[in-house]
Amino acid sequence: MNLLLRLIGLGLTLWGIYVLGENIFFTTQAFPYFWRGIAADGSVLALTAGVLMLVLLPRDAKSWGLLPIILAIVLIIASGRAVLQPTSLWQLFLSLLALTTGYTLLTTGRIPL
Does the predicted model carry a pTM greater than 0.90? Predict the structure, then answer.
C-alpha cells in the first residue's frame, strides 16, 4: 500500500508540473542585441550547475544549488525568450495542490490532511 501511495504521489507531482508548465513557451528568435544570446547561454550553464550542485553536493551544502537555479530563471526572463501565457486561477490552484499533495505522498507515503 505504501508503494502505491508513493506512485500516486509521483504521478500527482508530475501532473502538477505539467499543468503549470504547459503555458510556458520558449522561443527561438533572432537576437537584436548581443546580450540576449549571452543571457540564454548563461541560463543554461547556471541551470546545469544548479542541478549538479543539488545532486552531487553533501546534504548540508545542497541549498547552495538553489542560487544558480534562481539565477537561471532570472536570465531566462531577462533574455525575453520565455513567453508566459495567461493561466486561470483555478488551473494554478489545481496544479499547486497536485504538486504539494504529490510531493508529500512521495516523501512520506501518507495523505496530508
Answer: no
